[in-house]
DNA sequence: GCCAACGTTGGC
DNA sequence: GCCAACGTTGGC
């Protein structure tokens, strides 16, 4: 299974909104970036992703999973744009902030740390494990 | 609210 | 096919 990271602006559509969608999930539409789209093309049913809040919070708050593989983006007629559907799995024990990720040496290669603008990012197995650890550990 | 970084567009 | 101009994103 592969791991990913989905960025959202919580003012527009946040973790609580995804949870409210229940098992049906949400079409992750509106992505207009080739790299992000290519990442979605590579996703398989059941792949897991971190749900990240940009601007407000700047933290990873929950775990989502791919519940529909790539299909045309229904928000546009442009056939270039495709997307997946995701649904909420569970919140993280505690959010992991961008600041925490930046100072964690094992996350120095993380896309979020180095190219925060990419809206759908790959996460390596080891990065995933570190985030899981941090989300369950009291930082103090 | 500013601005740096990045991606895309379009003129040549 | 290059590159300047522009628009957008997102951290600060």
TrEMBL record:
Residues 2-134 form the EVE domain. InterPro entries: 5hmC_binding, EVE_domain, PUA-like_sf, THYN1-like_EVE. CDD domains: EVE. It comes from the Bacteria. This is EVE domain-containing protein. Coiled coil: none annotated. The lineage of its organism: Bacteria, Pseudomonadati, Pseudomonadota, Alphaproteobacteria, Rhodobacterales.
């Amino acid at each position: 299974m592969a791991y990913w990271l989905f960025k959202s602006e919580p003012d527009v559509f946040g973790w609580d909104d995804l949870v409210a969608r229940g098992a049906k999930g949400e079409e992750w539409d509106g992505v207009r970036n080739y790299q992000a789209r290519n990442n979605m093309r590579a996703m398989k049913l059941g792949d897991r992703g971190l749900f990240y809040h940009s601007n407000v919070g700047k933290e990873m708050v929950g775990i989502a999973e791919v519940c529909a593989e790539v299909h045309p983006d229904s928000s546009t007629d442009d056939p270039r744009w495709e997307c997946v559907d995701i649904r909420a799995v569970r919140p993280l024990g505690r959010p992991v902030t961008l600041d925490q990720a930046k100072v964690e040496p094992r996350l120095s290669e993380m896309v979020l740390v180095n190219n925060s603008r990419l809206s759908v990012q790959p996460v390596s197995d080891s990065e995933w494990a570190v985030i899981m650890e941090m989300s369950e550990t009291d930082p103090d």
